[in-house]
């Protein structure tokens, strides 16, 4: 019997690199040879990671991949945390790709549901971010990864800077398992400002024709914060942040949480809470946090990714942010998600629909948006051991072996922007599951993990309920005049209030009449710039003068 | 509305169908006249855009509009489009002389409208959920009595607006199968070409690149709802950010503006060709 070779993968990679040697100058391939290179190194059926999240996109490589000859490259198994750009799906229509494992598909949610329904795309599964990253090391080990860097030196050392995000976790999964690491770079330099990815892990570098796509996804103009959101923010600060002594937090992306950020230096200060709540954050560098940082509320921030326009501000605040010796921030999406899961007292987010049991989803009719960060951040990790006052405050009294729980807070207005109820008997996600033939209903945050719901009516303390019937009653009590809310009655409400399961603004000492825009620490983008000492540089679309 | 259309184009219609298109109110009482007039106007618009060297990345037609869309995509010739629309309009006129039509409901979701339709629909009073023009603008199609009952129910569910449309045919419902059968035979006689751009199909709202999908839509779109709202979602996801609306109106420009306020729009019925060319080239330069 012939002796088995234990280096077959390594040999195959070496042979493949040898076959493209004529295109390579060191690690470098000319921009115009990118298509030919991909056609030579990617085999039909390969598992390919294409870097893209909700902010940063390896756009040159995705466009190049979409241009390859489907006769040569086909039936790829794509692994993508975010399906964002048209060509991410075009490659399924042309046959270049066949199967997809992904997390988020918000910007392509209609097309992706159509393509799943008509069989153009086969779905492996829809993941939370952490699951997808984890599987890169177990049963979705990639053959080829396509990633983006800001700068590269002649040895292939990469600088990914503030938007390091997922690059390390993707590159490592291929570099040490005989996958091929292909990088698009905005700029080739003699010396990178710092090494975010060692050149040793990189096989091929292609200078891109233009910088990778980057979206200012977490920027919210204070101008658009409504008085209803301010009211809800005041309730949340009193009824949740203060009540549970919350120290560590993540805010989802949205105006509800932007309102809270802008209320800390004003309303929070009036309540004497400064120095007592939320010093430590896992959150992207959202501009609406600037006033809270400047007034000493926020002590530390670690980030999943960067935010366009915040670079200079961050560089001047290394005590707050994670900043390299070179003066720019380093982000890490995988660590951020891990922190969100295990290190935080609380996640606060929003959603499009909540059912009568408290399950929530952003998947609505005909749109399979997948999941962003919320399902990891918004789930209670049963493996957690360390204790904090907030976590302990949710511990049931009647169980000697009981433990605490992460606070998972959903903030929604009872009616959405389309004037349709947010509270529903059945989530649209249930129908989408059938249409797209998914194994599970795409629920973003499960009822069992949801500890609080805040609406303009009040707060439901779901963790205090001890039966599903009581949980439903608590949700009905704050669901306003939606069909779910209309089932509530005054007697039930009085009982729930008496037992502390539901709180109305007056129960929290919050006066509706005080919920005014003048209470916000910044009223508009100019105010944010002023708070930042002129260091924040808003993207053009957020500038009132352009 | 035909005063700009070259006489030569009107003559093509006359030669192919025997119908003389007239630009007066009386002519527009006749649905064959209307359909052919709108088509020829749109074919003229396509010629105008060709003249200024503007080619679309994506085409979308609403109901009758798909024939001009298919011409713009290079799938069907002008003459074949005229022949097919002539047959289609004739058969539509013959199919339900009295008692059938369409109604529109504003303010309810498709799901809500479908629940009402299911309560009413029967063999005696057939009514179906039809076109989706926007998230909260749904059309129902079928017997007039059935439609009226659905509209009344919609009012009780707090619809903002309900209206019986001036359409004498239960278009975009299964009641139109006989017309689709005729069109299938007619289209079998015609040779079609590969699409030069993406075509958004009425019948399922998908982006279509193959000629077979465009052909299916031309035969069958009367039997299915027009999923306009979905078509526009798909267009946006494909990266489209500019919409040019051909004649006769501005309906679809208004719909897209309320759905995607950042879209750039051009309406051919309110702008002259020089301005259109100027704007399109300016936007292309970025």
Class by alpha and beta content of chain A:
alpha/beta
Please name the CATH topology of the largest domain in chain B. Malonyl-Coenzyme A Acyl Carrier Protein, domain 2
Radius of gyration of chain B, in Å, reads: 19 Å
Radius of gyration of chain A: 25 Å
Report the span from N to C terminus of chain B: 34 Å
Q: Unreliable stretches of chain B, pLDDT < 50, 5 or more residues?
A: none
Topology, element by element:
The complex is a heterodimer of chains A (546) and B (286).
Chain A: H1 8-19, E1 24-25, E2 28-29, H2 34-41, E3 47-50, E4 56-57, H3 59-66, E5 76-82, H4 86-93, E6 97-104, H5 109-117, E7 122-126, H6 129-135, E8 144-152, E9 158-159, H7 167-175, E10 180-188, E11 204-207, E12 213-214, H8 227-242, E13 248-251, H9 255-270, E14 280-282, H10 290-294, E15 300-302, H11 311-315, H12 333-342, E16 346-349, E17 353-355, E18 360-361, H13 374-377, H14 389-392, E19 407-411, E20 423-424, H15 428-435, E21 452-454, E22 459-461, H16 468-477, H17 490-498, E23 502-503, H18 525-531
Parallel strand pairs in A: 3-5, 3-8, 5-6, 6-7, 8-10, 10-11, 13-14, 13-16, 14-15, 16-19, 17-20, 19-21
Antiparallel strand pairs in A: 1-2, 4-12, 8-9, 17-18, 21-22, 22-23
Chain B: H1 7-17, H2 31-51, E1 58-60, H3 65-72, H4 78-95, E2 100-106, H5 110-120, E3 127-134, E4 137-143, H6 144-156, E5 161-164, H7 177-188, E6 198-200, E7 207-208, H8 211-220, H9 228-237, E8 242-245, H10 251-259, E9 264-267, H11 273-285
Parallel strand pairs in B: 1-6, 8-9
Antiparallel strand pairs in B: 2-4, 2-5, 3-4, 6-7
């Amino acid at each position: 019997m012939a002796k088995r070779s234990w280096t077959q993968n390594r040999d195959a990679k070496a042979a493949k690199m040898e076959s493209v040697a004529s295109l390579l100058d060191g690690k470098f391939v000319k921009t115009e040879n990118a298509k030919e290179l991909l056609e030579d190194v990617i085999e039909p059926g390969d598992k390919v990671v294409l870097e893209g999240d909700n902010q940063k996109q390896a756009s040159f490589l995705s466009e190049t991949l979409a241009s390859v000859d489907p006769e040569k490259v086909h039936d790829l198994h794509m692994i993508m945390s975010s399906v964002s750009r048209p060509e991410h799906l075009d490659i399924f229509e042309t046959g270049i790709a066949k199967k997809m494992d992904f997390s988020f598909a918000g910007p392509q949610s209609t097309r992706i549901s159509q393509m799943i329904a008509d069989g153009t795309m086969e779905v492996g599964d829809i993941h939370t971010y952490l699951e997808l990253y984890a599987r890169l090391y177990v049963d979705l080990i990639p053959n080829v990864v396509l990633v983006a860097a800001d700068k590269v030196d002649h040895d292939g050392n990469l600088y990914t800077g503030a938007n390091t995000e997922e690059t390390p976790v993707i590159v490592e999964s291929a570099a040490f398992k005989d996958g091929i690491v292909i990088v698009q770079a905005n700029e080739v330099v003699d010396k990178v400002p710092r090494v975010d990815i060692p050149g040793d892990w990189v096989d091929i570098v292609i200078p891109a024709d233009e910088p990778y796509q980057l979206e200012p996804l977490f920027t919210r103009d204070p101008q658009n914060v409504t008085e209803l959101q301010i009211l809800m923010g005041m309730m949340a600060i009193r009824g949740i942040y203060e009540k549970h002594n919350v120290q560590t937090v993540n805010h989802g992306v949205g105006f509800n949480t932007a309102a809270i950020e802008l209320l800390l230096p004003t309303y929070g200060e009036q309540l004497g809470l400064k120095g007592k709540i939320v010093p430590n954050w896992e959150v992207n560098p959202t501009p609406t946090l600037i006033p809270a940082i400047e007034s000493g509320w926020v002590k530390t921030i670690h980030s999943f990714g960067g935010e366009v326009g915040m670079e200079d501000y961050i560089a001047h605040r290394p005590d707050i942010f994670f900043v390299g010796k070179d003066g720019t921030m380093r982000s890490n999406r995988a660590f951020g998600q891990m922190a969100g899961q295990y290190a935080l007292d609380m996640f606060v987010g929003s959603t499009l629909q909540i059912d009568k049991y408290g399950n929530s989803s952003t998947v609505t009719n005909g749109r399979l948006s997948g999941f962003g960060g919320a399902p990891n951040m918004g789930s209670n990790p049963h493996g957690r051991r360390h204790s904090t006052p907030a976590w302990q405050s949710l511990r049931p009294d009647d169980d000697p072996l009981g433990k605490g729980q992460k606070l998972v807070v959903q903030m929604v207005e009872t009616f959405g922007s389309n004037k349709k109820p947010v509270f529903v008997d059945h989530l649209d996600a249930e129908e989408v599951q059938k249409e797209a033939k998914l194994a599970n209903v795409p629920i973003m945050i499960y009822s069992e993990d949801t500890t609080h719901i805040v609406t303009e009516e009040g707060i439901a303390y779901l963790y205090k309920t001890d039966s599903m019937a009581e949980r439903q009653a608590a949700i009905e009590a704050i669901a306003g005049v939606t069909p779910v809310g209309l089932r509530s009655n005054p007697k039930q409400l009085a009982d729930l209030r008496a037992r502390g399961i539901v709180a109305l603004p007056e129960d929290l000492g919050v006066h509706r009449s005080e919920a005014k825009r003048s209470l916000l620490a910044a009223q508009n983008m100019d105010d944010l710039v002023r708070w930042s000492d002129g260091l924040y540089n808003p993207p053009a679309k957020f500038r009132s003068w352009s | 509305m035909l005063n700009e259309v070259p006489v030569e184009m009107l003559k093509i219609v006359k030669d192919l169908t025997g119908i003389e298109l007239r630009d007066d109110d009386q002519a527009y009482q006749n649905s064959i006249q209307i359909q052919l007039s709108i088509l020829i106007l749109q074919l003229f618009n396509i010629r105008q855009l060709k003249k200024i060297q503007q080619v679309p990345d994506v085409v979308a037609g609403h109901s009758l509009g798909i024939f001009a869309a298919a011409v713009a995509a290079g799938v069907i010739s002008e003459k074949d489009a005229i022949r097919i629309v002539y047959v289609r309009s004739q058969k539509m006129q013959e199919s339900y002389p009295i008692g059938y039509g369409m109604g529109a409901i504003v303010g309810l979701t498709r799901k809500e409208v479908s629940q009402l339709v299911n309560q009413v629909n029967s063999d005696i009073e057939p009514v179906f959920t039809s076109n989706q023009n926007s998230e909260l603008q749904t059309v129902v199609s079928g017997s007039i009595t059935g439609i009226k009952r659905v509209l009344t129910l919609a009012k009780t569910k707090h619809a903002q607006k309900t209206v019986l449309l001036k359409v004498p045919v239960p278009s975009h419902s299964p009641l139109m199968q006989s017309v689709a059968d005729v069109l299938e035979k007619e289209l079998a006689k015609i040779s079609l070409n590969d699409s030069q751009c993406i075509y958004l199909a009425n019948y399922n709202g998908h982006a279509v690149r193959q000629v077979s999908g465009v052909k299916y839509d031309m035969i069958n779109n009367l039997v299915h709802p027009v999923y306009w709202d979905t078509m526009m979602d798909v267009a946006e996801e494909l990266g489209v950010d500019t919409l040019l609306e051909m004649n006769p109106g501005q309906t679809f420009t208004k719909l897209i503006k309320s759905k995607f306020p950042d879209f750039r729009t051009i309406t051919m019925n309110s702008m002259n060709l020089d301005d259109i060319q100027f704007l399109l080239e300016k936007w292309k330069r970025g």
